[in-house]
Structure formats: structure tokens, C-alpha cells
Amino acid sequence: MSQTLYKSPFSRAYWRDAVEDFKKPRTMAFSALMVAACVALSYLQSMPVVNNIKITWGFLARALCALVGGPVNALAFGFVEDTVSYLMNPTGGYNPFYIFTTMLGVFTYSLFLYRAEVTVLRVFLAKLATNLQNVFIGGLGTFLWYSGGKGYWTIAGASAVKNAIMLPVQALLLVVLFGALLPILHRMGFLPDQAGRLRLWKKPERLDREKAQAAEKAPWED
To answer: In which domain, by residue range, is 109 found?
Structure first.
């Protein structure tokens, strides 16, 4: 696979690689595996955090698929995963609005993680962004279909408290998962070399240049 990493998704080359990766059979196979993982994880007992706030596990498989497949694949994966997960474990009425929120969530993960040097900060920011979507966009879906007379800001406020409490736990779970799986995914050819391990932070480019210059320095120049 291409070894190119990108600082941001704002380039034609980034999206060209995203389209190419989406077309690959191995990406489709990995996405199908992550759909199955989401369904299996939905049957696991959720993790209690405080009061009635619990963490489910599907976000782990969604983030992994976003990391490997990229933003174009994320949209297709989100549509299929939400539909299959509901059909396999239906709870309440089927609401197409939540297909959109799932697609958007996986898409957002990919903008932070796909073809990037994965750092703890990036993982945290990716989870923060998806949790904010849960608050404002997920809250809108709850308001439109299940509000029971509650106002939008009441629903969004309650969701904000819930997501703020879950954020550090979810981010920690993602950091542990990525720390374990990034080297394996790299050896399997799913990730570029520089993305093959989790970093605490990204070093300034100045330090990288100085290190490269030191390596090229002739012995008699010391």
C-alpha cells in the first residue's frame, strides 16, 4: 500500500488515496469483519460508569474501521453497520436518522485517524468530536422523534453531561486498543509504516530535521 501520511484531509491526494483504499477487496473484507464485531459487541454487557451512565463497545470497531478504511469507506460502512446492527438486535422503532449519525461518526473518526501519525492527542480529539456530535446531532434526533415533550436544549444538556463523563473512559479504551493493534495492522499491510505504532504526541518537524541532519553528518565533522 501507499506509505503516504497526511497532516490533514485537505488535499486531493488524501481523497484519491481514500477512494483507492475504499475499492480494495481487503478493505471491504476488513469492514465486513468490523460490522460483525459491532454486532457481537452489542451483545456484551455495557460498562457502568456512574449512576445510569453506561458505555457500550461498538465505537471501538467503528474507530478501527475508520482508521483502516478512510472517510469514503466510512460512509458505506456506517450505513451498512447501523442497518445490520438494528436488524440483528432490534430495540425500539427503526429510525433512519441514526443511520446518518452513525455514518457521520465513523466519517469523523477517519478524518482524525486515517493515514495520520496516530497520537494520544489525535485519539482524544477524535472521540471528543464524535461525542459533540452525539450531543448536538444525536440530541436533535431524540428531540424530533422521542422527546416526550422535552425541549431540545434539555435533551442536549443531559446528553452533554453523559458524554462528558464517558469521554475520558472511551478515549482511554481507544488508546489501549490502538496501542495493541497498530503494530499488528501494520504487519498485515493495512497501515503505512509511520502509522504502525501509537505515539504520545507528534514531535515538531524541526526535531525530525535535526535528527535527519545528524544521521547524515560525516564522522570527521564531529
So the answer is: 12-221
